[in-house]
Amino acid sequence: MDNSSGVGVLDKAALVLTALESGPATLAGLVSTTGLARPTAHRLAVALEHHRLVARDMQGRFILGPRLSELSAAAGEDRLLAAAGPVLARLRDITGESAQLFRRQGDVRVCVAAAERPTGLRDTVPVGSQLTMSAGSAAQILLAWEDPERMNRGLQNSAFSAAALAGVRRRGWSQSVGEREAGIGSVSASVRSPSGKVIAAVSVSGPLERLSRQPGRIHAPAVVAAAERLTQSLRRSGD
C-alpha cells in the first residue's frame, strides 16, 4: 500500500509523529525509525514542537505534544454534544431544575448545552455563556483533577479551597451555595474521555429555596448518574 499523499513534507512529518507513538525518541532514534536524513528529521521535529504537536521530556527526548490531546478532545466534542441533549433533558425532568454541560476554555468555563426548567423560578444559563472558573460547582469539577501547578493557579482568588477540591475528588461530585450568584445553588459531576481525563462538568442549578443549603444531598445521585451516562456514551463511540 502506498502511504504517500503526494505532499512530501506532510508525509515526512507524519513519519515523525508515527515514530513517537511508541514512546520518547532521541534524534538518532527518529532518524533510525523514519529513515529520514538527520537534518530533515531535526528540522521537522523542531517545527512540530513549535506547533505543540511534539514536545520534549525531562531528558530532552522528543515525545508527542499536548496539541494532539487538545485536537482529540475537540473531535470528541461533537459526540459529547450529540449525547448531551437527551441526558440533560432527563436530568432536568428528574431533578426539576435547569441542567447544563460546561467545558473549560482557558480561564473561563463555557455552557455548551443546557436543558432549562420550563416554568417557575429558575437559574437560566444560555448556551454559549462564559462563566468564571473561580466560583461554582462546575468550576470546582473542572479544576479538581488538573495538574498541581494549574490547580494552584486556579485557586488564587477563588471562592473555594484546595481542601474543598480534595473533597470533590473523594466524593466525585461538587456543590456550591451562593458562590457564583447569591441565592443560587448547584451540583456538578465530571464527564470523562475514554482515556479518563475530565473534559466536562454536568450541573443542575436553581434557587436555594428549593435546593437548600446542602444541594448535594438532594441531587448528587442524579447528577453523578447523568455524568456517567455521558462518559459511557463517549467510551462506546470511541470503540
Automatic annotation (TrEMBL):
- Listed GO biological process terms: negative regulation of DNA-templated transcription
**Keywords recorded for this protein, A-Z:** DNA-binding, Transcription, Transcription regulation
> What positions does the domain IclR-ED occupy?
67-236
Q: GO terms for molecular function, please?
A: DNA binding; DNA-binding transcription factor activity
**Gene3D superfamilies with a match to the protein in the record:** 3.30.450.40, Winged helix-like DNA-binding domain superfamily/Winged helix DNA-binding domain
Q: Which SMART domains match?
A: HTH_ICLR
Indicate the segments forming the HTH iclR-type domain, all copies. 7-66
Keyword hit for Transcription regulation: yes
| KW Transcription (keyword) present | yes
Q: Which domain of life is it from?
A: Bacteria
Q: InterPro entries recorded for this chain?
A: GAF-like_dom_sf, HTH_MetabolicPath_Reg, Tscrpt_reg_IclR_C, Tscrpt_reg_IclR_N, WH-like_DNA-bd_sf, WH_DNA-bd_sf
Note the Pfam families from the entry.
HTH_IclR, IclR_C
Name under which the protein is recorded: IclR family transcriptional regulator
Please report the organism this UniProt entry assigns to the protein. Answer: Solicola gregarius
